[in-house]
Design a protein that fits this description.
By secondary structure, this protein is mainly α. It is built from eight helices and no strands.
Length: 241
């Protein structure tokens, strides 16, 4: 169990560090690369959800409960985001916009941390795959959030400080998953099913629209689709290897 805590701590720290790379990248590059990165992340999340998280959760809980929990998680995340108005990014109150954005990220990060913790409880391999899936979607999303916060009037230092604070919720989610597993044998399966629903929500609400709504030259639209397929192919290749 001690090794699992070390693995989880390292994965959460790596995720947190990766989410702050926006401070090292020119903002013009962020705007250009955001679309393809989000499409790639969508493919990784979908592949990880259907090929790793859901099968493992079903193996621990049986298919019915695992799918029901994933659906409940998906609906809950939709309700939470609706309640905090995460989609109201075009509002006129910039301070409220920043608060809402960071609050929604806190929900996501806590769920990501729980997914990482539950996955490492099953095996180091599943833990690594889940961590990579989290980082794959975390980096482009945080790049986008960084630009939005800057546009809302926050300084570069304030943006990075706020985003770093929000990343701490991932550690909370991971600890809850690990502690819960010590007192309940089905905790890891439940956490994996919940993570599957969360990943589906992130893919369908935050990422997939970048593929479907890609506009402009045919090359730009093709890049979006190729990015999605490359993300799925990466997960398939990992399983074959």
């Amino acid at each position: 169990m001690g090794a699992t805590w070390i693995y989880v701590a390292a994965a959460v720290a790596l995720d947190g560090g990766a989410a702050l790379v926006a401070g090292l990248i020119p903002e013009n590059w962020i705007r250009r690369a955001r679309g393809p990165l989000l499409c790639f992340a969508a493919g990784v999340l979908l592949g990880t959800t259907f090929l790793d998280l859901l099968p493992e959760a079903a193996g621990q809980l049986s298919a019915g409960p695992a799918l029901a929990l994933a659906l409940l998680s998906l609906v809950t995340m939709i309700i939470l985001e609706w309640s905090v108005g995460h989609r109201a990014r075009a509002g006129s109150d910039r301070r409220r916009l920043a608060t809402v954005l960071l609050g929604a990220d806190a929900f996501h990060n806590a769920a990501d941390g729980g997914a990482i913790g539950a996955a490492f409880l099953v095996s180091p391999r599943l833990g690594v795959i889940t961590s990579l899936a989290v980082i794959a979607h975390e980096v482009p999303e945080e790049l986008a959030d960084y630009v939005l916060l800057r546009n809302a009037g926050m300084s570069k230092a304030a943006c990075l400080l706020a985003m770093a604070g929000v990343q701490l919720t991932a550690a909370i989610g991971a600890v809850l998953a690990l502690v819960g597993a010590r007192s309940w044998s089905h905790a890891s399966g439940i956490a994996l099913a919940i993570a599957a629903g969360t990943f589906l929500h992130i893919a369908e609400v935050d990422l997939i629209p970048n593929v479907v709504a890609a506009t402009g030259p045919r090359r730009a639209r093709a890049v979006a689709l190729v990015g999605l397929c490359c993300g799925v192919a990466l997960v398939l290749a990992e399983r074959a290897w």
